Amino acid sequence: MKTRQLHYGCHVKKHGSFIHAVDEALRLQEAEGVSCIQLFGKNPRSIEQHQWSQRDAAICKDKLQQAGIRCFTHSAYVLNLAIHVSDQPEWFQKTAASLMQELIIADALGAQGVVVHFGTIKHQNKLQGYQDILTMLNTITPVWNGSARILLENQAGMHGGLGIMFEELTNIRKLCMHPEKIGFCFDTCHAYVSGLWRADEAGGTAELLKSGAEHGFWPHVELIHLNDTLEAAGSKKDRHARFGTGIISQAAFKELLTSEELLHKPMILETEPIGPQLHADEWEQLRSLLNEK
Ligand SMILES: [Zn+2]
Predict the structure, then answer these.
(1) Contact in structure between 282 and 242 (CB atoms under 8 Å)
(2) Cα(187) to centroid of ligand 1, in Å?
(3) How far is ligand 1, taken at its centre, from the CA of residue 270, in Å?
């Protein structure tokens, strides 16, 4: 029987201040054994430059380090890596500046990385989309020398169809000028609704693990977005369900999360918190599923 130290947590709200989010994380560590968190570094709905307090970030970094809590930030939803520079030069520059500020804030908080969605296209030309993502990454990574990495997240399928398959993520990483500055975030809900993780089929989870290993994906996964789903496999619809209440079977989750490849990865819930307990029922379910009470 494999034993593990579980690393789980959730997305925490800032309510305007990093300190609020980190104090909440400390409370959840005490109450629920949380050891990793995610928060928005900037305003999630804007790529404009963000006013932030370096002093507050330094206080948070200290608190998190002392508590041994691993931190990740999530980039603004509107940040799109697949901007075609000659069509939208100003938007491209604004996006690059926003991504750079995301990295600077993540570093100031002591975060391991910034989760960034793979990229969105409104046209049909996927190859152009990949090229545009590479242009953006090659604009930022050569001039970024901090320790936070860009963590590309697999998508549900509603973004012009990009960023679903392992090979898209691993090839972008390989083709980028500085692959060492890129890692991955694996979202279980997105993997299921996109059709990548065939959790309902016999052998579907084993196949997912094997395929990820063949593409060299798992070693670069720095965190898991542990979301269940309300939507059917292959629907490409991104609606998270609380862990254990959606349609992905608990047996499939268990097989995935106890695999050699995912055993020690931090697991972040991105589901709606309920009441003052937030996610207590989900973590309870997770601990009992993975035999750690
Ligand atoms: Zn996610």
Answers:
(1) yes
(2) 5
(3) 7
Centre of ligand 1 from the C-alpha of residue 278, in Å? 18
- CA 153 / ligand 1 centre spacing (Å): 7
pLDDT of residue 292: 59
How many whole angstroms separate alpha carbon 204 and alpha carbon 188? 13
Ligand 1 centre distance from Cα of residue 12 (Å): 14
Cα–Cα distance measured from residue 149 to residue 265, given in angstroms and rounded to the nearest whole number: 16
DSSP 189-235: HHHHHHTS--TTSTTHHHHHHHHHHHTT-GGGEEEEE--EESS-TT-
pLDDT digits (tens, 9 = 90+) for 151-198: 999 999 988 899 999 999 999 999 999 999 999 999 999 999 999 999
CA of 193 to the centre of ligand 1 (A): 12
* Distance in Å, CA 90 to ligand 1 centroid: 28
Q: Which pairs count as long-range contacts for 61-67, CB under 8 Å and 24+ apart, including other chains?
A: 61/108, 61/109, 61/110, 63/22, 63/23, 63/26, 64/22, 64/25, 64/37, 64/109, 64/110, 65/110, 67/25, 67/26, 67/29
Q: Which residues contact 93 (CB under 8 A, 6 or more apart)?
A: none
Give the CATH architecture of domain 8-289. Alpha-Beta Barrel (3.20)
Tokens of 14: 């800032």
**Distance in Å, CA 228 to ligand 1 centroid:** 11
Per-residue confidence at 7, pLDDT binned at 50, 70, 90? very high
Q: Determine the Cα–Cα distance for residues 240 and 227; give it in Å rounded to an integer.
A: 6
Angle between helices 54-67 and 89-108 (to 10 degrees): 50
Q: What pairing do the DSSP bridges indicate for beta strands 228-229 and 221-225?
A: unpaired
